[in-house]
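#lab-general

N.A. 3:47 PM
ok so I finally got the sequence cleaned up, no stray characters, all 120 residues accounted for. can someone with queue access submit it? mine expired

B.Y. 3:52 PM
send it over

N.A. 3:53 PM
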Amino acid sequence: MPKLTDLPLQAVAKAQQLVERGSAELHYAYKMLEAGAFKLEPPQNIAAMLADIRRWGEFGMIPALSVSSALYPRAGVDPAFAGRAVAAARADGVSPAVCKTVIEHSDRLSRALRTRALAG
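B.Y. 4:20 PM
back already:
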């Protein structure tokens, strides 16, 4: 059983441990932000990715699904983007898995943009 006189020392030691751990996590978060981990892609990069959509299926199904989900923009595009994305996904040679994923994301994006327009 701890002594009452030791409790302040234990509290200080625990606080110091939390400060050290927190500063290390802040350091890693800063390094991730500095490297651009959370930056948005500019529209011209997204347009270039759409031009290469036929090639996304060449890497296999799992990477193709991941790429088509991860690279699809959720904001910062106009309503016409969803139509262009669906047209590119339905082109000859595009993997069916990529086509389905892009169409689903386009539908979600269209609904979100319509909702924002009605709310705004």
